[in-house]
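Re: your question about Molt-regulating transcription factor

S., sorry for the slow reply, the queue was backed up all week. Below is exactly what I fed in.
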Amino acid sequence: TVVNYQCPRNKACVVDRVNRNRCQYCRLQKCLKLGMSRDAVKFGRMSKKQREKVEDEVRYHRAQMRAQTDAAPDSVYDAQQQTPSSSDQFHGHYNGYPGYGSPLSSYSYNNAGPALTSNMGIQPQPPPQQPYDISGDYNADSTTYEPKQTGFLDTDFIGHAEGDISKVLVKSLAEAHANTNPKLEYIHEMFRKPPDVSKLLFYNSMTYEEMWLDCADKLTGMIQNIIEFAKLIPGFMKLSQDDQILLLKSGSFELAIVRLSRLIDINREQVLYGDVVLPIRECVHARDPRDMALVVGIFDAAKTIARLKLTETELALYQSLVLLWPERHGVRGNPEIQCLFNMSMAAMRHEAELNHAPLKGDVTVLDTLLAKIPTFRELSLMHLEALCRFKAAHPHHVFPALYKELFSLDSVLDYTHG
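Result:
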């Protein structure tokens, strides 16, 4: 059925690039006024040729999912099940999750090709039998529509996807998330265990330098799984290799914060750090007040997400939104990235409206999540600056290869100019 929106502000909202997501009613009215058909609200406007390309993409990703299922036969996902990521709910199966810090077999640390490409395991992906072309159907202001006959998807379809594309996207992301994270049952089991005093003493006895290197090792393991997650996002491997690497370099730390939210017990103020549960207060101390601000900011951001009690599906979609944020500095394929972002946004909005009431007034869960993205960017820059200070003070320490290349001086310059 066609959606029915309501305006809480007397149907007089300003609809511009900044505020366009605040009121769906007024945004829809502006779109209709500018010439969008009412049928497009439900079905989108696509030529037969475009629809065939979409169907080819659906078949391609279904084949990918079947191949993944064959490789991991114990993977189970129920697209209809809502599972809050709080400390009192379980979900999914533990699909061979590699422990933090453990290398994935697909990562080859060699000198063939660009170093970062080999560390990430990114290889050009062969096209499907009938390749498609994601072209620039999108104006910077998404309330105006400029169709091109060669486009893959138009804004009306993406904004209101209700068919196979949306279902395949949600299912693909949910499975990618489940297969690259520890299952919640394992996390909750770790929180229920009595404290391991020997491990607590071990971490408490670490020097500042040892803790830095241990955190870098844990983060590298998490980022390896984030890269695997990104490669399973429908359409991500169709982007240029440069854009794939740039998105991962600038977004991997931000996704790590999102994933940290699953490892926090907000009631007990504890975090699962590798294979030991630590009080968060034990983690938020550092010599340098700037490092202290970074650690506190990371935990505050992660706890904010944890309090929203997102489902696993919502966490998967949110990670896709954060990674594909189209305004990252230096990306070349902006229309293609915007296309993938819009698809994830439409699915995320649907899930959030289905599962969550407004938090305060007309502020929604999605509003809160989107407002956190600039904070992630700021924390990522703070991490790069902290790393530069640590390297300057301890030049002899060696970091994991992937960590070293992801968080290089070039990354600082990218953020500074972004």
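The radius of gyration is 22 Å. The mean pLDDT is 75.

Happy to talk it through on Thursday.
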